[in-house]
Amino acid sequence: MSEVVKYINPHQIGLSRTSVTNIESGKQAVLLHQVYDIARALDTTVQALLPDDKPASAMQPSSVDDSVPEGVRKFLSEELAAATRKARNQ
Amino acid sequence: MSLARPRYSRVERLTDELLAKHRVKAPPVPVEAIVRADEGVSVRYSDLKDISGLVVRKGGNALIGVNRMHSTVRRRFTLAHEFAHVLLHEGAELRFDKHFRVNLRSDLSSTGTDIEEIEANFFAACLLMPRRFLDDDERTLTIEIEDAMAVRELARTYAVSVQAMSWRLSNLYGRRSTHVNQRGRFAAA
């Protein structure tokens, strides 16, 4: 069931109730400006509405700086590469 | 969470539960199978240079990295040590260990990090060299810790390093085992 229509008035963003439901379930494509409208109506950011652009299986810490030893950084980049490969093959 | 002192009883209870759950009846303990049976944990062996092991956590999952250039016995200890961090030490997204000071056991003047390391080493020792197995092993009844050959034999049975076995024996059987403490602290080579 649609979650978004519970929180916004579809007409406020120039879409029908059905369109919003279909967009949310993936049955209908969404235009970029509509994504911005939806985010604004939900009082959130566009980023928050979009899935992470990194594969979910990639185990990566949020920050890796120079204090992290070379062996660890190498491990993390290999891990990211492997997870990306895996995601692409799915 | 900052620990005031190592939770020895809790750690040993945890390793006993794992051994019971996996029906481990005799050494060597299948540490890799035990770790991999934990659904939230994956293991990868890699050349980590001067690092023995590491843990990356994300969204309830953990990835353990083990230095594949190290010997089998050391990799087993590393894996158990990192698994302990996963089970016992919440928080840090990324944690890596250079080499473990296995004999770090003075509870006084230890920092919180030291205490976590002590717990992880104790966990590894309890998992790989369960007290019950050693108590039941007739070789430990008569062992002289100075007898390097005898310790090496035991170490081979448990698939651990001679140093790790010496340390474990001295902790379990105390004064009977003396040569171990001469060097103070050492790496689990």
Question: What does the model show?
Answer:
The complex is a heterodimer of chains A (90) and B (189). By secondary structure, chain A is mainly alpha-helical. Chain A contains 5 helices and no strands. Chain B has 189 residues and is an alpha+beta fold. In chain B, 46% of the residues lie in helices and 12% in strands. Chain B has 8 helices and 4 strands. Chain B is globular and about 50 Å long. The A-B interface holds A 59-62, 64, 68-72, 74-76, 78-79 and B 42, 44, 46-51, 54, 56-58, 61-63, 65, 67, 93-94, 96, 98.
Topology (SSEs and partners):
The complex is a heterodimer of chains A (90) and B (189).
Chain A: H1 4-7, H2 17-25, H3 32-41, H4 46-49, H5 70-89
Chain B: H1 8-21, H2 31-36, E1 41-46, E2 53-58, E3 61-67, H3 72-88, E4 94-97, H4 112-128, H5 131-136, H6 139-142, H7 148-158, H8 162-173
Parallel strand pairs in B: 1-3
Antiparallel strand pairs in B: 2-3, 2-4
Helix pairs in contact in B: 1-4, 3-4, 7-8
Quick overview of this protein structure:
The complex is a heterodimer of chains A (90) and B (189). Chain A has 90 residues and is mainly alpha-helical.
